[in-house]
Amino acid sequence: MVSIRELKEYLEQESKSKKLIELDQNFLYDLVSTIKTIKEDMSKVDFETQQALSKKYGEIRSLAQKLFVKRIKKIIETALSSVITETKVEINGLPEEKLLYNELYEVLSKYWKTITMILNGEKAEQIEMPEIIYIDTNIEKFYWEDGNFYGPFEKGDIAILDKNLAEYLVKNFKKVSYL
Question: 146 lies in a domain?
């Protein structure tokens, strides 16, 4: 469970720190658990208590959103700085945040390479941007034509994939869509 007090402390620490603060690896699980518990409790109590729980839910949601916005901004800034300095770093983030950093780094690297070529007066290649898809079904690990394995994907996953692979998944799985 995550309390309002803890979220306020995390938000304050995140605001003061230049780098990502360390969150418990179970933070997202605990946050989901807290929100689910509040929502479940709201259906079991009188109107006055529902109002109080609704206010608590709103405050937790607002604090968590502010925290994640600060963290995402730091991840974006770190990825861009790493690309420009050609020094990929390890970030002190949650597994999902590390994935975001790595994906941003790859996309920004391609873009920066093109910018560098243009600035050097060279003909730049067209950048093929990856696609973002939402996967609302389980998909087992599979081998793709590029020689890599992908997956497994679970219901609710969001993936950033090569255009051809994303197109294949959207066409062949009814519960896969573009974001």
Answer: yes
Q: 124 in a domain, yes or no?
A: no
pLDDT for the residue 179:
77
pLDDT (0 to 100) of residue 127: 66
168 located within any domain: yes
Does residue 89 sit in the same domain as residue 169? no
Do 62 and 99 reside in the same domain of the chain? yes
Q: Residue 51 in contact with residue 59, Cβ under 8 Å?
A: no
DSSP sequence for 105-173: HHHHHHHHHHHHHHHTTPPPPPP---EEEEE-S-B--EE-TTS-EE--B-TTEEEEE-HHHHHHHHHH-
Tell me the pLDDT of the chain averaged across its residues: 91
Does the reported pTM lie above 0.85? no
Beta-bridge partners for 133: 159, 178
Q: What is the CATH number of the domain that holds 163?
A: 3.40.5.50
Q: What is the pLDDT of residues 33-48, one digit of tens each?
A: 999 999 999 989 999 9
- Enter the DSSP assignment of 5: H
Domain containing residue 58? 4-119
